[in-house]
Fold this sequence. Notes:
Number of domains of chain A: 1
Radius of gyration of chain A: 20 Å
Number of strands of chain B: 9
Structural class of chain A: mainly alpha
CATH topology of the largest domain in chain B: Rossmann fold
Distance between the termini of chain A: 59 Å
Oligomer: heterodimer
Number of domains of chain B: 2
Largest sheet of chain A: none
Strand content of chain B: 15-25%
Shape of chain A: globular
CATH class of chain A: Mainly Alpha
Amino acid sequence: MTIFDFLLEPFDYVFMQRALAVTVIAAVVCAVLSCWLVLIGWSLMGDAVSHAVLPGVVLAYIVGAPFAVGAVIFGVLAVALIGAVRDTSRVKEDAAIGIVFTTLFALGLVLISVTPSQTDLSHIIFGNLLGLSHSDLIQVLVLGAITLVILVIKRRDFTLFAFDPTHAHAIGLNPRMLGAFLLGLLALTSVVALQAVGVVLVVAMLIIPGATAYLLTDRFGRMLILAPSISAVCAVVGLYASYYLDAASGGMVVLTQGAAFTLVYLFSPRHGLLVTRIKAVRRRKLAAA
Amino acid sequence: MSVAIDVKAVTVHYGDVLALDQATLSLDKGRICGLVGMNGSGKSTLFKAIMGLVKPDAGTVTIDGATPAKARRSGVVSYVPQSEDVDWQFPLSVQDVVMMGRYGHMGPSRRPRKADKLAVAEALDRVELAKYAHRQIGQLSGGQKKRAFVARGIAQEATTLLLDEPFAGVDKRSEATICELLRELARDGATILVSTHDLHALPDLADEAVLLMHRVLLHGTPNDVLQPENLALAFGLDIATRSESTP
């Protein structure tokens, strides 16, 4: 088998072509969004929203509405509930997040268990890359494109919001609106990504690429290029690995991203563990000399 | 002379805690005012009230005769945050941060035009940070960081500058540089409100000073405010006598 056969063989199948398209789109959109999430410190929020959309998606399925509508409603509801619990009780934010998203996620699981045609819906939890229909692909393409275009056009405002919301306020912008907007996009992105890797693993795609890029550069513009590039490459590598090892595709994609993060964490020329250790030793020697 | 910042009988509560009690303060255009008071005396709340970040329970704030919301939209207000409120690891260059001052002048995608780039370059020149334009923001010294944020206000063409503890963690020489810069800006017509713990630098920096303890205890010259009996009102006797005995 030549290298070309190795690379091309999986894509003789239509289901693998669709899987590739959906995974790469999800990987790219999630990665772009993750750049802001890791800088704002919203990783837990990403976790919460991506889980909390589950009942929305199931209800949308039951009433025959687009998944995105249910997801955004429940994403927004989750954020509102988290804010309410945090602000109106003595419970701290991390606990509020944990309570709200697990409860909503559980609601989703219960709804799935009582809804006929369970086979279809259980795929939402773990993803079902290899069973994507043509309309799934179209939905991911449309939602992914919308989210990506908005993120790219408003990127400077989101970065301002992440860096200095007070300044955003001072020049007449509304930081709360910007934050809410970003969380709405997070809910949309969760719908895109849950087709690929499932609700449980979406959060990985929403955190790992941004965190990886953050260790590689001190320029936000470069993060926005690096994170989706790394994420897309990992998605493709993960998909090949799942094909040839006959392993779960969503799991393989996230494992690949985790491996890429580990490499960067250790060997990044700018903020890697190795380099910072060497620098520290040199500084100590200089100080001793 | 026209009034730039006008705070009238502003009262702010956080829950049951009284932060500002009928605070009244009027600042003319082109003046530098030092805001002096203990931690928890309401200095930050006063800034927030002026910027419209907290809604007063009573009283009004106007900036250049307009409501805070209107003043913000017209881009006349600039705020230099306390160091501890900034994420210095954030992957932005000095130039990127100063460019954020221009966002109010730009279209919805905040794409910088030639005029914006020029304004940023001029602002960086003005604060003598041009050669550090491409440095990551955290790679500056304490004083340079402050100047970068002042440059953001200059690029914004703000006429009202609010600086929250700009001298904390800044060495004496940088402090003098910042004072000189602020005095230049005031000469060009900017109105500047600075909260500070550094009482010794006050007479060199400010035209007037305010002593705050939830209420405005005193609004006069820096030397009035620095009278031990007046400081005693705001800080308690202890600090007043110490500040007298230290050079």
